[in-house]
Design a protein that fits this description.
- The chain starts with 7 loop residues before the first strand and ends in a 16-residue tail after the last helix.
- The protein has five domains: 82 residues, Alpha-Beta Plaits; 233 residues, no CATH class; 86 residues, Calcium-transporting ATPase, cytoplasmic transduction domain A, CATH 2.70.150; 151 residues, HAD superfamily/HAD-like (Rossmann fold); 116 residues, Calcium-transporting ATPase, cytoplasmic domain N.
- It has a seven-stranded mixed β-sheet with strand order 14-26-25-24-15-22-23, sandwiched between helices. A six-stranded antiparallel β-sheet has the order 6-5-7-13-8-11, with no helix packed on it. Strands 16-21-20-19-18-17 form a six-stranded antiparallel β-sheet.
- β20 and β21 form a beta hairpin.
- It contains 26 helices and 26 strands.
- With 728 residues, the chain is α+β, with helices and mostly antiparallel strands.
Amino acid sequence: MAAAGGSTLWKVTGMDCGSCATTIRTALERMPGVSDIRISITNETVALLLDDKKTSGADIEKQISRLGYTPSLIDAQAKNAGAIAHEAPRAWWRQPKGQLAIASGALVALAYGASLVIPAWSYALFIAATIIAAAPIARRAISAAFARAPFTIQMLLTIAVIGALAIGAAEEAAVVVFLFCVGEVLEGVAANQAREGIRSLAALVPQSAFVEQNGRVVEVAAASLAVGQMVLVRPGDRAPADGKVVEGHSSMDESPITGESAPRTKGPGADVFAGSINHEAALKLRVERAAKDNMISRIVALVEEAQESKAPTERFIDRFSRIYMPFIVGLSALVAIIPPLAMGASWSEWVYRGLTLLLIGCPCALVISVPAAIASSLSTAARHGLLIKGGAIVESLARTEIVAFDKTGTLTEGRPVVTEAVAFVGSEADLLARAAAIEGRSSHPLAEAITKHAAKLNIPSLPAAAVKAIPGKGMEGEVGAETIFIGAPRHAAERVALASDVGSEIARLENEGKTVVVVAKGAAVAGLIALRDEPRRDAAAAIAELKAMGVDAVMLTGDNAQTGAAIGRALGISAKAEMLPADKADAIKALAASKRVAMIGDGINDAPALASAHVGVAMGSGTGVALETADAALLKNRVADVPALIKLSRATMANIRENITIALALKALFVVTTITGTTGLWMAVIADTGGTVLVTLNALRLLGWFRSQKSETPTAGDNRNEPALATS
């Protein structure tokens, strides 16, 4: 059964560390007809392309089960319907690993207790405790070996335990098995904490909804809601779906979705996100998106997909671990046999050291160091309105040297208003009527501002025909018998002559930082319309923060040079003006030739420039296009989130470096102490498990990164009065 995109997807419980993922991947990639394996430890999922003629889905499940994990096929229809449950796991003592740890501990305690009463039985009791507790682990190791994945931590432990029993260290072998079982439980608990971010996101949408049916309000499952249904959201309830207010007025807390703390007032026609909390009065909503398409479902899906996308550092460590494991096995064998053969040293002593080195060498902590940090980073970013599409994007953002901003809707509010209309032919009302007739067919912010201004002045609308957009230049159409063109002065000059009085008016308005559009009627200039798009309140502070971080900033705009310069001066940013979309893309390519560039735009008009940058970031992106196409997205419409995005990425990479240092330092330390005979088998297991837990806990610190930032410094340019997100 193929899931969306042609992949078959399984939920695999018990997969808690990088070694688990490596074992499963190695076993599956050797099976015929299996390709494009994608494993996510955080999501506990395995996705792959499967040729049913060569290998069946049942064979895949059997292989995963033999390795000691529990696979369950995720139905494609359920996945597409957004019905995949993100349930909290069972308590650790109810899971197989927890039960094995309890049983192993009980056996060791029983052996110690019995040895005090009947000392002669001591050795036999510890052997029994070791064999009983180690049997499930050895079975997993043998299954992995038959699946051509011999280098697993279970196999290393099995060899170490057999060797320890062979040299008479039964008591130590029993303790080692117990400590290993405890370590697996701790790894599971730590991995579960890393998954909590995704579960908490998915849990924001309520499970039930109140639907209006035949004049009655009926409670139904939220996942069953269909587009067009009417739902009632009572005070204190969470909205069960993305919808539009049909009746009522209330304030809604959207912070669970966007991170914006100030409630937003909602009335008829306003958009509401699933998961937002109703504060004051009952609202009637019309469902606008099915469960699979609501904002939270899309965010969860994107974060899950991002966690499957490996960072370059993670890919390198995966390749390294495949070489490292056989190397450690070979080194352990040499440590065990060379001193006795070459120097006549004690066989039992050096075999013991070789076995200890075998356990020390397991790369679990190293393998988990990157995905644990990336998963924590992506989860906390999503909870605060920042979407990052994977570890590779985090690495690129951390290395950003210059940020290029689009102007309209990014550095500015994106809601320009008409400040002045200058008529050269006819009256001002006549000028605005003709302009509104043409611009009414466009969704461009400047066009919307002109039509709203005309409506505000109660200027009657005029019929327009043959209206068309001239990409990057303006709009053209017919009003009555007249051809009307509306565009920037430089584009209008290609069609009509701009007289000196027209030129002087354009210069005056542009020097005031206004955007000027020329309305040409036939071969003459009918007039000018001046608009101004105010900078966002947090823009200047955010740009200053970027510069303080050592990151340059540049503004790319299609506006004229004077307007671009005026906005640039106000924000403290250099400006490149009069740029068509292709010009912006060329400018980004030129910058990217020498620096790491992040481009911030609206995700639609700036698509070429976003694609040309090392990282394309969509601003104010409740839109589906921005969410799906950009490398990262800022859901809160705040420029202040740009430095936050880069800071979080840098903190993530610093965390990864710390994790790798911890993992390698522990390995180096205990390799030395093992060869010198200072540490033994039980310490080797503690070091291996401890290293894995340490790097996981260190990665989990990223879940509180935003809280730590708030406690250190105030957020740059707090923008609590930002408008609601535009939604598609």
